[in-house]
Design goal:
By secondary structure, the chain is α+β, with helices and mostly antiparallel strands. 39% of the residues lie in helices and 31% in strands. Strand 3 and strand 4 form a beta hairpin. It starts with a helix and ends with a helix.
Length: 249
C-alpha cells in the first residue's frame, strides 16, 4: 500500500509538471496546479502586503510555490523562513539541481503597478542560498541536504566532502583563536601594573613594569588563527558550487 501511494504521488507530480509551459508566464501553486497568464506582477496592496496578479486575477501569495515572468523564475521561501514570512528567491542556476538566491523586490520608477527584483547576485555559492530538483520543495544549501540529493554522483560527493573538511578545520581554528584571545586578555589583566624587582633604592623598594609580551603574542596568535580559519572556510565553500556544476554536467 505504501509503495502504491508513492507511485500515485509521483504520477500526480509528473502530471502537474506536464501542465507547465515554460515558454509562457505562469504560477505554480503548492497544490501542484498551474496558472498561465500573459502578465504576472508582484506588487504591494493598499496595506503594504505583497500580492500576485495573474492578468486581472489576484492570487493569494502564500499559496504560490513558484512563478515565472519576463524578469525570471522565482521560488517562494516562506517555509524556510523562521517566521514564515513570504519572500522570493530567484533561480540563478538551472539544471538537474536548480540554485536560488534571495533577492530584494523594488518598484520601477514611472511604473506604479510594476515591481521587479533588485540585482544583488553573489558570485559564489554559499549556505544562504536554496536549491531544488524540478518543481520539488526548496531546501537550504548545506552538506546534509546536498549529500543526500547527490548520492548518485561520486564526483559531486568528493567536492562536498572537501567542503565539510574545510568547515571542520576552519571551525577548529576559530575555537583555538577564541581560546588564545581569552588567554591573552586574562594574562594581560593579571599582569597589568608594576611589581617589585627585588632591589631597593635607598630605603624604598624598586619597581618596574610587568612584561606583557606573552599577552601580545597570544593576541597575535588568536588573530592569525581567526583569519586563517576564515580563508580556509571561504576557500572550501567554493566546493559547493563545484559539486553543483559537476552534478549538472
Amino acid at each position: 500500500m505504501k509503495k502504491l501511494l508513492i507511485v500515485v504521488m509521483a504520477c500526480y507530480a509528473l502530471n502537474a509538471r506536464s501542465q507547465v509551459n515554460e515558454t509562457q508566464n505562469f504560477l505554480y501553486l503548492y497544490s501542484d496546479s498551474v496558472i498561465h497568464a500573459q502578465n504576472i506582477r508582484l506588487r504591494p496592496d493598499f496595506s503594504g502586503a505583497w500580492i500576485l496578479r495573474a492578468d486581472s486575477r489576484r492570487v493569494p501569495i502564500g499559496g504560490v510555490k513558484f512563478f515565472s515572468n519576463e524578469d525570471g523564475f522565482f521560488a517562494n521561501t516562506r517555509r524556510l523562513n523562521y517566521f514564515g514570512e513570504v519572500s522570493f528567491s530567484e533561480r540563478t542556476i538551472e539544471g538537474k539541481i536548480n540554485l536560488y538566491q534571495q533577492i530584494i523586490y523594488d518598484p520601477i520608477l514611472f511604473e506604479v503597478d510594476y515591481y521587479r527584483f533588485r540585482n544583488t547576485r553573489r558570485q559564489t555559492v554559499d549556505t544562504r542560498m536554496f536549491y531544488n530538483k524540478g518543481f520539488s520543495d526548496l531546501k537550504k544549501v548545506n552538506y546534509a541536504n546536498l549529500s543526500k540529493d547527490m548520492a548518485d554522483h561520486p564526483k559531486s560527493l568528493d567536492f562536498l566532502k572537501s567542503y565539510r573538511k574545510s568547515r571542520r578545520v576552519g571551525t577548529a581554528m576559530y575555537v583555538a583563536a577564541g581560546a588564545a584571545i581569552i588567554a591573552s586578555a586574562v594574562t594581560f589583566l593579571s599582569g597589568t601594573g608594576m611589581k617589585q624587582d627585588g632591589t631597593t633604592f635607598g630605603n624604598m623598594p624598586n619597581y618596574k613594569f610587568k612584561d606583557d609580551t606573552g599577552s601580545f603574542v597570544l593576541m597575535g596568535l588568536g588573530a592569525g588563527l581567526g583569519i586563517g580559519g576564515y580563508f580556509i572556510q571561504a576557500s572550501g565553500s567554493r566546493n559547493i558550487g563545484r559539486a553543483i556544476d559537476a552534478y549538472n554536467q
